[in-house]
Amino acid sequence: MTYGYAPHPMYVQQQPPAHRSAPVSVHFIAILHYLGGAIYLLTAAGAGLLAATGGLDHLDTSRIQISQDEQLVATVTTVAVLAVLGLITIWFGRRLQLGRQWARVLLMTLLLLTVAAIAAGTWVAQDPTVLIALVQPAFYLMLLNTRAARSWFKNHTW
User: Which residue has the higher pLDDT, 141 or 10?
Assistant: First the structure.
C-alpha cells in the first residue's frame, strides 16, 4: 500500500529519452526520395515547357507517322505521369520518414524484387559487370535494417 505517496526519485528508473525524429539512415532514404521526386517534377515541368514553347516541332516524325494531335496527347500524358510519379515519390519518402511500417515493408519488397531482376539479368546477359547495379538496392536494404531503423518503424523511437 502506498497511501498516496509518490516513490522516492532515487528509486524511479529513468527511461532514456525517446527520439522524436527518424534515425539518420531513414532520413537519408527519405531525402533521396525527396530528390527523386523533385527530379520527376522538374522533368515534367521541362517537358511541358518544351511542348508549350514549340520545342518539339523540330522533331522528325516522318518515320513514325504521328500527327500533331497525337504528339500533343503523348506529351501531356508523359508530363502527367511524371508529375504523378514525382508526387507519389515525395509522399512515399515522407511516409518512410514518419515511420510507417507498411512503407518500409513495401520498399523492402520492391528492393528484393529489384535484386532478383538484376540477378536474372546478369544470368541472361552472362555479364558480371551488371552486378554493379546491386549497390543501390543493397545499400537501401542495409539502411532499412539497422537496429535504429527497425526500432523507429516498430516503436517510433530508437
Answer: 141
**How far is the C-alpha of 49 from the C-alpha of 54, rounded, in Å?**
9
CA-based end-to-end distance of the chain:
35
| Position 35 confidence tier, pLDDT thresholds 50, 70, 90 | very high
Q: In the 8-state DSSP scheme, what is residue 12? A: S
Q: Beta-carbon neighbour count of residue 53 at 10 Å?
A: 9
Domain boundary assignment for the chain: 22-155
Q: Positive or negative CA dihedral for 66, 55, 79, 136?
A: positive
* Residue 152 predicted with pLDDT over 70: yes
Question: What is this structure's pTM?
Answer: 0.79
Q: What does each C-alpha distance from 68 to 46, 47, 62 come to in angstroms?
A: 19, 16, 12
